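Backbone-to-sequence.
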């Protein structure tokens, strides 16, 4: 997960907080649109 945060910070010039919020938004969007993937998303992005 830290690797993705670092990539967002470097590529999109986001702060640590912004990168974490972006990941959380994407994670929630995927779960909302594809609830059957919730377990896979939790494993990929972390549970919290």
């Amino acid at each position: 997960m830290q690797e993705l945060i670092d990539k967002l910070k470097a590529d999109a010039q986001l702060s640590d907080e912004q990168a974490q919020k972006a990941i959380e938004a994407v994670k929630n969007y995927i779960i909302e649109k594809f609830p059957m993937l919730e377990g896979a998303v939790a494993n990929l992005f972390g549970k919290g």
